[in-house]
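Quick one: structure for this chain?
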Amino acid sequence: MTTTRCLSCSGSGKVMGGGMLIKDCTNCSGSGKIGKEQVGMDKNSPHYKEAIRNIKALSKDMDDKQAEKIFDDEYSKLDKIEVKRGRPKKSR
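Got it. Here's what it folds into:
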């Protein structure tokens, strides 16, 4: 399972509650990480709708269902991308 840093607590697992008291983050249950299965894609967001609109603009014959299938297929491939962090090693 691929995990990502929780945006609510910035990966610390702690947030400021009412009265400036520190408490565990409710989004990640204090772990600081959220699995990809928990993140998901909000299909009512303006970014999702814009992506579908851009995919439909590629072909006149494409409908919403086909554009959503293309988007979902490509979105599922994001788990397989390996991200290399840090500075590249110096060559001697």
